Automatic annotation (TrEMBL):
<comment type="similarity">
    <text>Belongs to the endophilin family.</text>
</comment>
<dbReference type="Pfam" id="PF03114">
    <property type="entry name" value="BAR"/>
</dbReference>
<dbReference type="InterPro" id="IPR001452">
    <property type="entry name" value="SH3_domain"/>
</dbReference>
<feature type="domain" description="BAR">
    <location>
        <begin position="24"/>
        <end position="262"/>
    </location>
</feature>
<dbReference type="Pfam" id="PF14604">
    <property type="entry name" value="SH3_9"/>
</dbReference>
<feature type="compositionally biased region" description="Polar residues">
    <location>
        <begin position="262"/>
        <end position="285"/>
    </location>
</feature>
<dbReference type="InterPro" id="IPR036028">
    <property type="entry name" value="SH3-like_dom_sf"/>
</dbReference>
<keyword id="KW-0728">SH3 domain</keyword>
<feature type="region of interest" description="Disordered">
    <location>
        <begin position="262"/>
        <end position="319"/>
    </location>
</feature>
<feature type="domain" description="SH3">
    <location>
        <begin position="320"/>
        <end position="380"/>
    </location>
</feature>
<dbReference type="InterPro" id="IPR050384">
    <property type="entry name" value="Endophilin_SH3RF"/>
</dbReference>
<dbReference type="InterPro" id="IPR004148">
    <property type="entry name" value="BAR_dom"/>
</dbReference>
<dbReference type="GO" id="GO:0061024">
    <property type="term" value="P:membrane organization"/>
</dbReference>
<dbReference type="GO" id="GO:0005737">
    <property type="term" value="C:cytoplasm"/>
</dbReference>
<dbReference type="GO" id="GO:0016020">
    <property type="term" value="C:membrane"/>
</dbReference>
<dbReference type="InterPro" id="IPR027267">
    <property type="entry name" value="AH/BAR_dom_sf"/>
</dbReference>
<protein>
    <submittedName>
        <fullName>Endophilin-B2b isoform X12</fullName>
    </submittedName>
</protein>
């Protein structure tokens, strides 16, 4: 008990002395030992690394899980698993849950009905998208988030501890320097100089330890660079899978709709345009929904061959039935029969008998060509 009390008293005295020295340095009444320029640069670089790593880590968490407090309580569950040092179980993603809802709904509506069969198709692809998302989240957490967290919770805590110890050693050194200056008697001055030498040795040793740890930040950057490449690779794989699934889904829906409504889904459109359209499947391709601005097949003033593909240069604008349309997105023509578009421009559009309902003929000045309906906002 006596030993603990003495140690507590000694520690309190040291803390008070350091506090006095620190305060006097801030007030300018005491000298401060400055660190060498190389060590100062290492400290500044380490602080910069810590700050940006923390911001990138937090924002990546938001990117991977934008709704931390949702109905599943996912973030709370992760917290408990981390504290218990157990592996977080794989959970159902929102896409997989949506897919399951669609499949369940199809059972009630009837799998043989157009709506029910379409729900089954879309639900299956939503489940695939959800599975791809789950794999992306797991890969990103392991290859990117975990190394960043390990640095913040491991290496950085060690660096911070040694830096605090270095600051204490510096304060002790400056206290000893002040005592040497204040000592009047030879015996007191000799004792103060001995304490100064010990304090200088401890400061130099701690400065070297801190310097070695801070120089390890370069290795941290190399490791985080590798993790960043792996994160981008996982992200690219995920988006490529999503793109592939959506292309396949659009083709399946288009094929199913053509079989169900053969007269309404005759297609003369370039098949490659399905991959570039930014909008979902247009209303013109859904069962039971009429395409917008579909004029009568008896529209006068339109030259068309009785059979074979439509020749755009031979098409003439009808005297009635044409409308203005605002372009929603940029569009690059895939061949000479199509018209390139610029977002927000106004063009004249009209329909042609026998033409795919997903397309209209567009005119801009002397230019003419097919344009996709999903890129347009038809004006009255």
């Amino acid at each position: 008990m006596d030993f603990n009390l003495k140690k507590l008293t000694s520690d309190a005295g040291v803390f008070f002395t350091r506090a006095v020295q620190f305060t006097e340095e801030k007030l300018g009444s005491a000298e401060k030992t400055e660190l060498d320029a190389h060590l100062e640069n290492l400290i500044a670089r380490a602080d910069c690394t810590k700050n940006w790593t923390e911001k990138i880590f937090r924002q990546t968490e938001v990117l991977l899980q934008p709704n931390p407090i949702d109905h599943t309580g996912a973030r709370i569950e992760e917290f408990f698993y981390e504290k218990l040092d157990k592996k977080i179980p794989s959970r159902t993603t929102n896409g997989e849950l949506l897919g399951q809802y669609m499949l369940d709904a199809a059972k009630d509506f009837g799998p043989g009905t157009p709506y029910g069969s379409t729900l089954i198709t879309v639900g299956e692809y939503q489940s695939r998208l959800g599975g791809a998302e789950r794999e992306f989240l797991q890969t990103s957490a392991i290859n990117f988030l975990t190394p960043l967290r390990n640095f913040l919770e491991g290496d950085w805590r060690t660096i911070s501890k040694e830096r605090r110890l270095l600051e204490n050693r510096r304060l002790d050194l400056d206290i000893c320097k002040a005592r040497v200056k204040k000592a009047k008697q030879a015996e007191a001055k000799a004792a103060a100089e001995q304490e100064l030498r010990v304090a200088q040795t401890e400061f130099d040793r701690q400065a070297e330890v801190t310097r070695l740890l801070l120089e390890g930040i370069s290795s941290t950057h190399v490791n985080h660079l590798r993790c960043l490449h792996e994160f981008v690779e996982a992200q690219a794989t995920y988006y490529a899978q999503c793109h592939q699934y959506m292309q396949e889904l659009q083709k399946e829906l288009s094929s199913a709709n053509s079989d169900t409504y053969p007269n309404s889904f005759a297609s003369n459109a370039n098949p490659s345009t399905s991959a570039t359209c930014p909008s979902p499947v247009s209303s013109a391709t859904l069962p039971g929904v009429s395409p917008p601005c579909l004029a009568s097949s008896s529209t006068p003033g339109i030259a068309q061959e009785p059979s074979g593909p439509l020749k755009i240069p031979d098409v003439q604008q009808p005297s009635t039935g044409h409308r203005k349309a605002k372009v929603l997105y940029d569009y690059d023509a895939h061949d000479t029969s199509e018209l390139s578009l610029l977002a927000d421009e106004l063009i004249t559009v009209y329909t042609v008998p026998g033409m795919d309902p997903d397309w209209l003929v567009g005119e801009r000045g002397n230019q003419k060509g097919k344009v996709p309906v999903t890129y347009l906002e038809l004006l009255s």
